[in-house]
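During the reporting period the student researcher (J.K.) took over the structure-prediction task from the postdoctoral fellow and processed the backlog of single-chain submissions. One of the processed entries is reproduced below for the supervisory committee.
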Amino acid sequence: MAVPLPQQPSGTCSSSRNWGNILQKIKIVACASGSSLYKMSSPPFGDDTPTDDRAMSRGGPGDSATSMQALQRRVLVEFYLEEMLRNLLVGENDIEQDFGDSSDDEDADESTIEDEFGELASLAHAKLNVYMQHGGSSRLNEAIELFEEAMDLQAIGHPAWLMTVDNFGHCLFLSYKQSGSLWHLQRAMWCHRKALTLRPLGDPERPSSLNNLAICTQARYEHLGSAEDLAEAIKCHKEALLLYPPGQTDRATTLTNLEAFEDAIVYYREALALRPPGHPQRSRALSNLAHHLHTRSEQQLERKDLEEAIQLYREALLLRPPGHPERSETLSGLATCIAEQKKEDGSIQGLQDAAQYYREALVLRPLGHPARSMSLHNLASFLRTRWERHGINEDLEESIQLFQEVLRILPPSHPRRPSSLHHVAVSLLERYKQRHDPEDLGIAIKYIHESISIIPPNHPSLCFKLASLASAYADYGDVLKESYNVDDFPSIFRRACNLKTASLYDRFRTSQMWVQRQSGPAGLEAYQACLELADLFLLIKPSVTARRALLSSIPSNLVLDAVASAIEAGDLRRAVEFLEQGRTLLWSQISRYRASLDTLQEIEPELAKEFWRLSQLLETSATTKITEERSTKSMEAEASKYRRIAEDWDATVERIRGINGFEDFLRHPKFSKLQQSSKHGPVIVINLSPRHSDAIIIQYNKDPTLVPLPHVNISDVVTTTNNFIMAVRADGSRTVKVKAILRTLWDDIVEPIVEELRNLKVAFGSRIWWCPTYALSLLPIHAAGPYRRGKLNLFDMYISSYTSTLSALARSIDGGAKAPHTTIPRLLVVAQPTTPDLAEIPYVREEVEKIKDSVPSANVLLDTEGTRAAVLKNLQTHNWVHFTCHGSQKHENPFDSCFYLYDKPLTLLDIIQARIPDAQYAFLSACHSAAGDVKRPDENVQLAASLQFSGFRSVIGTMYAMADVDGPIVAEEVYSHLFRHSETGKEVPYNCLVDYKDAASALHIATKALRDRGVPLERWINFVHIGA
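J.K. obtained the following structure tokens:
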């Protein structure tokens, strides 16, 4: 049976009380207060890791002891469930009856009532003002009682009653923020909702009521997690915003209250612009914007946001000198940002500065201050973080003591209590690792359980609490198994990873914790979750450039270890699926926007059209170049727009998946689909993991074959890769060093694979495809061999090509099957022998002549004709292209990698954006056109691979700087082979087609021609083929 709700007293004024004497004693404070209306301008804060104290600076005391006991019992039973809360809380009519209506007292003397009302209201204002300046729960309790008594003296709807109900609601909200009393919050909501109904459209105070109600509703959302409350808060804030046109001063208050919504930072910047230097509320606007930038930096790992937040906090601190009531709030926020910044760069001095700011903030919040618990919490969290970095045991001990003091201060129902319970538990677990004191472990698990039990089941902060519990079960199962069902830890991790109300970054970090603790076949589920969340996490950024910056937060060996884990479990098909899912994430995301819609178009044309429209918008966002000239405000507005489009795109994808036959639309491909890439020859995947290295041979309609590589370890391959890069860059003869590297590749990697290919009856002269991982993708596997007299090298046995992913290769093969080949290709040749401001390239004109000999119909853009605009235009009408010009691989900004044309560079982003129709073949006779990204080789952000992802099905490129003299030789051999059936360069017989799939064989012949001419080893191995 539910405990009855505590009834708030609604007493009437006693004439025996000498209000005149009391007013005289507080005359100055009362006059300063006047009858001004308190407007709730501070957003409530209730997130799991509080770092901003705006809300607590307006905190209030708790209920009476009796009421608090009753509330505690209710919270433990039902209060955290929103639907039960709505059923159990007193209804609006009941609350209204609680206030009464003295208008029916016909004998009351109106002038006496007005006087008494004025005295009560003024005294309540005075109490509230003193509380706001100095704190003190008794003052806030008295203000609540006085406002309530004043309300009883006026009829509901009376102007004086409206003024008082706003202030009464504000006091109740402050009390909620201090005590966590949902009863006080519900009454505050009733006050502001009632005021709103009595202020119709056109009332100048309606926006204020909308803001007040929105703040309370948002606070209840943060406490209970009800989506209905969040929706109402957003609706109220946006309605208020419409009532304040741009430029109006009061608009800043509404903008300031739009917290944690999709347009928050855009609104906060506008609010700051409305409060220029000299404005009394500028420090508040600075602090609000700084807080949200810091929050975004935590969730999106945006360093610039953190740096800007520090700058804004410092400016706010100057506007809040010693003695300012909100100085402690700014000190705390600044300390948190500095601590996070210096944690990354390892600055001890920076951490000391942060500690000083935290301690100064705590001094400004002595015992009894409503925000003291928040300062204690922040300092305790900082000390534990500093202990993790520097191992000072005193920091850990003080952290535990401070967290325990927070628990003593916060009542059981306070919304921040679950967070404090969780944090002290984490600190106790850290101490247990050192001391192995069973009491620390027992209390920690108890606190985690308690923190989970008193928050709503879908609260965003639940993610890390569940992760901590699951981690403790996994780490200390032998100790805990007598008291807890520790074998449940995988299901707890699963629940945390699937908690969609939590941020993607938090869910991704949780999945990493799961991966670290789950081994064997059961660990494959953990890796699956981790790879999926890594993909989703990158998508929080609209552009591929920004997504690449986020890649640093994803361990480079995550996918490699996932594949190794699947191999250990004997699941080779799953291993191949993992490899496909976890590599080239940036390209895979763009490719989803270009999914084939032919079948869908026939069934649901309107849905196909909507998907195409949204995909176009998302691809435009993804491939838009980020420049320093673009304002921060415009980029944030675009990011907000991107999020809304992305949500619509996700919903559209789900609608498509609801159609029979489209259940797997845009899901990560299964092995059966990936196997299509091996239609024309085996694909060899080489996984280079710190655990072990292996090759998997994929053949069409056959089970995959495992080739263990026991002599290969990741550190040796990295060393070999560095040696190779230095060797090919060195002056003079490089053959001896390069040949030694090729022998190592043969002995440790290629020879065992070739032996298995022979066992599988793969005939010599066949085509094979290599799909290497990590640093191995930067090495010339195609040229491996013993290089000894009488021994065959790899190129003597097979024709090698590369592919970045199996999906890209499958698209190249399938696309070719659909393309008609009734005429010769339309070949565009872009030749730049004399690009302005760059060295002249010899032999370019000769290379063009060699191409024209085989392809007289080729369209050549030479010198001044080869402008960026002309090339982009002609790419739309030519399905084959040959570049002979300077090329550059930009390792710091790989999407700026380019071909240098006559007027402007043609960048990788330009090529992606071009969406070249029926793109088939590209020859990149330029330096570094197939050079991988040393920092993230598995992303394959280089020109040749980019052309493959952009639709070109067959690409020839170079791994490093090429010898200019080799260009004409290779071009002559390649094109004479490709066009061997065409004598006139016009129509050719249908059964003698010019096929881009012959490019690999053509290059194989061309490199043999270089060898036959005695060209040094390092020059001919430079040329590689990618794709079909």
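The committee noted the following: The first strand starts at residue 683 and ends at 688.
J.K. will present the remaining backlog at the next meeting.
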